[in-house]
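Service request form, structural biology core

Requester: graduate student, group of Dr. S.
Request type: structure prediction, single chain
Budget code: on file
Notes: please return the result as structure tokens.

Sequence provided:
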Amino acid sequence: MILSDKQKEFIRKATHRFNLKVGARRCGKTYLDNLYIIPKRIIDRKGLDGLYCIFGVSKGTIERNVLQPLRQIYGKNLIGTISSDNTAKLFGEQVYCLGCEKVNQVSKIQGTSIKYAYGDEIAKWNEEVFIMIQASLDKDYSCFDGALNPENQNHWLKKNFIDQIEEKGLDVYVQHYTIFDNPFLSKEFVDNLCKEYAGTVYYDRLILGQWKNAEGIIYRQFADNPSLYIKDKPIDDKGNKINFMIISIGIDYGATQGETEFKATGITPYFKQVWTIDEMKLAGLHTPEEMYEKFVEFYDRVVKDYGKVTHAFGDYGALGQVITFGLNRYLQQHNRPIQVQDCIKGRIVDRIELDCHLFGQQRRFILKKCKYLIEAYSQALWDDKHEDERLDDGTTPIDDLDASEYSMFAFYDKLMTDIKGGY
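Core staff response, request fulfilled:
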């Protein structure tokens, strides 16, 4: 078993009630957990009272970040899949696998005893969930291991837990990583990743592993060199027309506030590139019926120019679901073979991260005619009064960004596959 010095250090020192690895992406944090820490903790506690639990942002991220890597190492006979009762068999033991974005997702473990818990992407959790888990680690042998990428300096985990270790005498071990702590990554890969994050808050967080506040221009890569990303038409490097695997429309409703945004996004095969291929803005107050008519006009235009629209996602906030219901009925009545689904919003900081990654890897392009979205990317600022939020005071066109993100965030995992591994 070949390990880095940092990984060996963790094995020696991770003997506390809480053992956390905080730091950069691709630094080897979760590789060690999957290879050694999780199997050892489970086997060491066989026969003892209490539950085994793996917590993540969702069951999907637990499968991707924890169970799949474990299965690749130990095989499907030892590592099962998550069943309908939210458990999976690991090394012959029943392990609960629960998402932590919302309190009600893990309320079923409230009042129970946990003998071992593993936490994936802890900084993306709801704080109340973490507090609930703390209360359940009530055995002398209870133990929690976890890994995370740092976020802003006022994040609840840093401020209310990590920064309180010494003052409160907590039984916690925290190890910090930078990407340079992983000697098994090629220099070329590290150099490229550094370039991709350069100028953004994600360089400090995901390269240097620092808790860092976001400030200033959000999409620095785009704002500094827009000509790299703005194209006249969707063609490849050889001048051939691009055929999109997915064409998705995102809708940000503004029926009661003045502006509704439609953004059409084309995604190439294997999720290699993302193109904004068309947009429409409905300025001024308008009725739902007027919006339905304009959506059909936009839909028909996109189909004519670029091909079949495969997905459509609408904002579900406020009256959004009511408007979507009416829009779907209108589409059915007018024989348009598309159904608008509720968008997957996620956290704004994750939506921003996706775009920054795609810009950094030069996989994100916008047609020149999409002037509203180009303006939005150029002007978007971090809100210096609210951590990890965009400034939304009417001075920058945020709705354009929302509609664009709604059109593509459902494909987040696929678009991030080549860079998400190795937390």
